[in-house]
Write a structure and sequence with these properties.
Radius of gyration: 13 Å
Shape: globular
Oligomer: single chain
Largest sheet: 7 strands, mixed
Length: 118
């Protein structure tokens, strides 16, 4: 079955860095666009970043542009999010999600928690 498993979250000080990973299985990973989506405490879902099937096109929310980098390794069926210059407002549960041909997000991981605090 389709499975997405995030890892790499944790507690980091403001200005620090983390790299999130999302291991995919149960489907042809290289055939799907992928997104990172986050949910801050008490708030709704926020799209963070997206990447096309080959990894050559990437997209970012204005709130993370210039600080976060999305990438993928199709040989390893893994999606990444490199997060630099982290701010307290980046504190959230981070999910990776598969993008269906319709544009809907049809598979989600369980999320990994990122806490930015001194």
């Amino acid at each position: 079955q389709v499975q997405l498993v995030e890892s790499g979250g944790g507690l980091v000080q403001p200005g620090g860095s983390l790299r999130l990973s999302c291991a995919a299985s149960g489907f042809t990973f290289s055939s799907y666009w992928m997104y990172w989506v986050r949910q801050a405490p008490g708030k709704g879902l926020e799209w963070v970043s997206g990447i096309n099937t080959g990894g050559g096109s990437t997209y970012y929310a204005d709130s993370v542009k210039g600080r976060f980098t999305i990438s993928r390794d199709n040989a390893k069926n893994t999606l990444y999010l490199q997060m630099n210059s982290l701010k307290p407002e980046d504190t959230a549960l981070y999910y990776c999600a598969r993008v269906a041909p319709s544009g809907a997000l049809d598979a989600w991981g369980q999320g990994t928690l990122v806490t930015v605090s001194s």
